[in-house]
Predict the 3D structure of the following.
Amino acid sequence: MSFWQDKRVLVTGGAGFLGQVVVQQLNAKKAKHISIPRSKEYDLRKPSAIKRLLKDSKPDIILHLAAVVGGIGANRDNPGKFFYENLIMGVELMEQARVFGISKMVAVGTICAYPKFCPIPFKEDDIWNGYPEETNAPYGLAKKIDAGAGASLPSTIWL
């Protein structure tokens, strides 16, 4: 029996670029209970929506891939918005996962969290060695904080 077969897995951002691949991998591993919330139904920036989502989906595991994104121009024009909305989404989801007693949550970071002058190839430990590139910094910092808050990096789950 697959590890995933009897787990209820919540994949935030499961309809997005990375999320679709993660969901395909979960299906390949015989996951039977996958919830993919949509932002129109569950605004993950609001604690009430997160509580409703967790009551509805009853997950054992949360894979948090969702993000508020907009590209370099939008990041440059709205740094506070991208920092706040991504940070609050991850922090509120993490807090409600704790309150609901969910055993495992993985918050996925982003390449944008790595320092501007990071040696290539990147190493996971390099993530804390400097400030991200300025045009992506608000988004990257929010994702770095969320990913680092739940556990010391690297925080990896293998599918």
